[in-house]
Amino acid sequence: MFYSRLFVLAGLFVSVLSNDPLFRTIDFGKWTSWSDWGECSVTCDRGVQYKSRNCTDGIAGKGKCNGLAWEARACVKKSCDSNSTIAVTQTVPTTPTPTTKRPKSYVRNCYHENRAASYRGFTFRTISGRFCQQWTSNFPHVHSYTPSNYPQGGLGSHSYCRSPDNDHKPWCFTSDPAKKWEYCNIKECSELPLPTTTTTTTTKEPVTYTPTLCFDMRHPYSYRGLVSTTSSGQPCQIWDYNKPHSHIYTSSRFPTMGLGFHNQCRNPDGDLRPWCFTTHPDIPWEYCNVPSCNGPTTTTTPVWTTTFSTTTKMTITTPRQLPDGCGRSLYPMASSFRIFGGVESVKGSLPWQLSLRKTSGNSHYCGATIISTHWVITAAHCIASPDLPHTYYAMAGKYYRNLRNEPGEVRINFQMIFKHRLFNAQILNNDIALMKVTAPIIFTNKIQPACLPTTKQPPQDQRVVIVSGWGRTETAGSSSVLMQASLKIISAARCRPMHDSLDEGMMCAGYTSGGRDSCQGDSGGPLIDMNDNNGRYEIVGIVSWGIGCGLPNKPGVYTQVSYYLDWINWIMSSY
Asked: Where does the UniProt annotation place the signal sequence (predicted)?
């Protein structure tokens, strides 16, 4: 039986060894030859480099075949002016001596919690001992923390720990495919002098709150009660801790949301009601049993005012401007998990994502993607009446699924809809449709188009891609916020034994091992990939169908957009 709205998120099993190489996957099955060693993760001094091979003994993830295997080793560049790489087997020092001097005011052997963004030290290992991924690389983890997106973040062609997003502590993406990011093993300064250059002093205005001891839907952020357990009785995790669950909801990032060194339920993201992360390793978060306010006469505690002290931060010398062209975002992709197996996206980080709706119901039912000022792309099975375009509309710039009049949201109406003429609703092949808008879409910082693929070839096997949507979960209904998850492309040759109905124009993404992951996503929504040559996000797939959810050897199936490039370009140029 076919199911739409499917994707699966699972980790790659890695065995960490104490000797050389740094880590490798378990060696079972028949394998291809090892690839050459890749680039060193630093441009000078010492870093890490990788090689890989593929399992060829049957289906990856089944029996003795473990799919893609990685090996890593320490490496060293002779000097900053040399491109030669030497493999080294000794332990890599935590703080290697740099060969290039940096401005003294930015060189730090420690960090200050209130000014972690100013750290310019040379540590490139995390608190667990993992090596850091190079900031300009998208391997093994895809991200948008680049020097161009964060010009004052101290990023570059190196793997040194940084805090480009003003987190309370320097961090990095790790070289371990199974662990996306971690904080770094850096000491906190007891006293840190302010930088002497490139600084600006800013004072935040006092913020006045009317805290409530009950939950008022009209003021979803206002709850300041003392409830510290979830509806199922799980104790809450302290907000300023990242154990057992890593997340972004700390008092340093959200200073006005009542967070801090406590575990009381709060609602920093404007959800349906207060919630918290739990102390149970297998239950990331749950809603709390907080009483609702009954009308405007509910008793509240006295109004208080919180005044922020003067802070010094890095100066951004260039004004924030709209991205040039397609496939760019002003906001970084999320790297923190709130639900098991999925990621809450950062507001504005997926500006091409649309919520497709019908005028008869006004509720979200499918996803879609902006690809130009005049065109939107989605799955054909989401369109029952292409001859009635006025009965459909899309919401752009949305983050909350059900919140009305969300700041920055825009309604998009349609004048023409083109379903692929060979679409078959029974087997869901050629599952693609184009929708022409009634008026040009005005791009903003949260509304942008995704690029079409630059090649007709499908994404490479094991390529990491991102899927997004407001889709359903098996246990908690539809998500209230826009979600995303990282998946791996599964080649047609490896996928056909798992899906015998796989047709031309279809592609698979997910994990052959399956798992207990939640099922997120949304039919018609985008599967995107960053182009390595230009750093732009391309829509490579459209959420189409699947069998079950999270089952072993049953990955999700997507419409391969590059297969239909000629059809897409012909429709767009003809109408």
From this structure: 1-18
Q: Pick the catalytic residue: 112, 158, 247, 381?
A: 381
Does residue 419 form part of some domain?
yes
Q: What is the pLDDT of residue 346?
A: 83
Q: Is 168 a catalytic residue?
A: no
Same domain, 234 and 365: no
Whole-number pLDDT of residue 235: 94
Contact 561, 539 (CB under 8 A): yes
Query: Are 401 and 466 contained in the same domain?
Result: yes
Task: Tell me which amino acid residue 353 is.
Answer: Q
Cα gap 36→463, rounded to integer Å: 18
Q: Specify the amino acid at residue 488.
A: K
List the catalytic residue out of 167, 431, 461, 529: 431
Kindly state whether residues 347 and 279 are assigned to the same domain: no
- The Cα 138–Cα 434 span in angstroms is 31
pLDDT of residue 19: 35
Catalytic one of 479, 523, 544, 562: 523
Upstream peptide bond of 96 is cis (omega within 30 degrees of 0): no
Domain encompassing residue 456: 1-14+336-575
- Whether 84 sits among the annotated catalytic residues: the reply is no
Do 468 and 529 lie in one domain? The reply is yes
Enumerate the β-bridge partners of residue 71: 24, 51
So what's the pLDDT on residue 520? Answer: 47
Flag whether 348 is in a domain.
yes
267 close to 275: Cβ distance less than 8 angstroms: yes
Q: Strands 343-344 and 526-530, how do they pair?
A: unpaired
With DSSP H G I counted as helix, E B as strand and the rest as coil, what are the percentages for the chain, rounded to 5?
5, 30, 65
Residues lower than pLDDT 70 in the chain: 1-30, 41-48, 50, 54-72, 74, 77-108, 113-114, 190-210, 246, 248, 252-253, 294-323, 334-342, 472-478, 514-521, 548-550
Using CA atoms, how far apart are residues 571 and 436, in angstroms rounded to an integer?
10
Q: CA dihedral defined by 133, 137, 139, 142, rounded to 10 degrees?
A: 100
Is 429 within the bounds of a domain? Answer: yes
Name the pTM for this structure: 0.49
8 A C-beta contact, residue 375 and residue 401 = no
| Residues 363-378: tens digit of each pLDDT | 899 999 999 999 999 9
CA–CA separation, 486 and 528 (whole Å): 10
What are the two backbone dihedrals, phi and then psi, of residue 488, each rounded to the nearest 5 degrees?
-115, 135
Q: Name beta bridge partners: 235.
A: 229
Number of compact structural domains in the chain: 2
317: exposed, middle or buried (Cβ count in 10 Å: 0-12, 13-18, 19+): exposed
What per-residue confidence (pLDDT) applies to 517?
Answer: 34
How many Å apart are CA 84 and CA 43, to the nearest integer? 10
The tokens for 189 are 């300064």
Integer Cα distance of 134 and 43 in angstroms: 10
